[in-house]
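Reopening this one. Same input as before:
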Amino acid sequence: MDSFEINKIVASILLIALLFIGIGKISDLIFDVEKPKTDGYKVELPDSGIANQISDSKSEVAEEVDISALLSLGDLAHGEKVFKKCSACHVVEKGGANKIGPALYGVLGRKVAAIDDYKYSQALIEYDKEWTFEEMNGYLKKPQTWIKGTKMSFAGLRKEKDRASVMLYLNQFSDNPLSLP
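Same output, byte for byte:
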């Protein structure tokens, strides 16, 4: 194929592109549609603080979790398997050193941000609660939503069985494990 043939092919592609653009411009001139100056309908939202209502409803949903029913779904063997996701950043053995995240030995039942030699985020330091099964369930579900400002970048465990199993697994690694509800 010589260069003259290639030039004809390129010219025909450019001509087709120009025709499509030109037809679009001409049709815009012929079929001029005026947009209405006023809206046909308006959707009005009440000024009663929709964002507050949404956040209140989220916290109500979180409080309604039946933790004993949730924990009945759990299984220690499954918890050990699921915890492997966590083991990249945490250890559960007694005397284990902090990694990217704090050591989790005895975490259930202790105060949030209680390990002295770990640098917690300001959000966790100010949280001022204890790690109960309910707190741990909410945190494991979606850490960034449960405690806004936490530096834990884990996406969370969506499945109830996974969260329940991890909580049961963590609870066994303690000098004083929490009694199951």
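So the earlier flakiness isn't reproducible anymore. For the record, The domain at 67-172 is CATH 1.10.760.10 (Cytochrome Bc1 Complex; Chain D, domain 2).
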